Amino acid sequence: MKHKFKATQIFDGHQMHESDMVCIFNEQGQFESLVPLAMAGDDVKTLSGILSPGFVNCHCHLELSCFKDKIPQHTGLPEFVRQIVSIRPTFSDQDKAVAIEKGYHEMFENGIMAVGDISNDTTSIVAKRKAKIQFVNFIEVFNFVKNDPQACLKISSSVYEQFQKELPFFQSTLVPHACYTVSFELWDLLIPHYESRTVSIHNQECPEEEEFCFSGTGAMKIFFDDQNIQPGIPNPTKMRTVPYYAHKMKGAKNNIFVHNVQTKESDIALINQTCKQSNNYFCLCINANRYIQNSIPPIDLFRKTQSKIVLGTDSLASNFSLSILDEIKTIRQHFPHIPVSEILSWATAEGAAALELSDTLGSFKQGKKPGLVLLDNEMTTVKRLL
Ligand SMILES: [Zn+2]
User: Of 284, 304, 252, 270, whose CA–CA distance to 351 is shortest?
Assistant: First the structure.
């Protein structure tokens, strides 16, 4: 039996269609066609609201789900990271597993079909093994182990190998955490692992990061000194972050730059010039930016420069929910002039392309299995239909 739905509007991953159209899926949830009501035959279900392909969350840390409500808002990033580091050992493996499972179900219920998930350890593997969501796992590499690049890569590689072995049906990739936590020596060892693939990096999240890169001073420097950490960046570089590291990203197929709160037009131009062979995506995590430092990313700048935009929730350490609709709501509050269809394309087709999942997800195209969600007309709730 086919699934046939009609609603107030239908968003197909790229554009909005008005109410006389019907979207048809086969029994297995594969999209078949979008046709006028007169051609749809019987058994059409009529709903109120907007139908859309399921969402893609391009940036999450599912393994940090146990931090929900543990860290106060507006601390700024250095203090936020300090709290993560100090609270992390207080959680048992059981606490972490239960929270991960809960976070996974929250994303599923919120209509999320695929997640680009940062993983620093193997605690999320059990939940992912039986998941109905597709996970693209980004295993981060840091410089924190005695400034020995080989040893640092080895630690992350053992996590990566575990992911490869346990979750062979998902893409997993070793990626840099951020430009200030990966030395160039480590980076050169890492590049062959993500060349020609999709890579994710935390980019320009806070002003302290730019200050630390440029002059080697500020709250980030104090944090690293307190923790006795050698972050791996020369001190100072006398450069902004993007000019300092963009050339390390030029071999990737897709780059997902995450956060981009401090990004300037010159940074975008430099990324596009340096990484001109790559597809460069700017991932917005607006609720996390508000949570950590009460800031918002310059979304109109990305639109003005015709940059590719995708959405992420970040983790429950810095967000109240794992819901792409909640990200959309906040974007609409701050940027009411952006058309709904444009934001929905970031949440669906663009996200699927960034994670190399366009063959199956992101839009209503024959043969895809993109999922189906219903948003109410005010876009305050989401319900998963397929
Ligand atoms: Zn993150």
Answer: 284
pTM for the model: 0.98
pLDDT tens digits, 228-254? 988 889 989 999 999 999 999 999 999
Could you tell me which residues come within 8 angstroms of residue 133 by beta carbon, excluding any fewer than 6 positions away? 104, 107, 108, 112, 113, 114, 115
Give phi and psi for 149, each to the nearest 5.
-60, -40
Residue 243 CB coordination number (10 Å)? 17
* d(CA 189, ligand 1 centre) in Å: 22
- Name residues with Cβ closer than 5 Å to ligand 1, which is an ion: 314
Domains of the chain: 1-53+363-386 (2.30.40.10), 54-362 (3.20.20.140)
Q: Write the DSSP symbol of residue 85.
A: H
Contacting residues for 107 by C-beta, under 8 A, at least 6 apart:
57, 60, 115, 133, 313, 322, 323
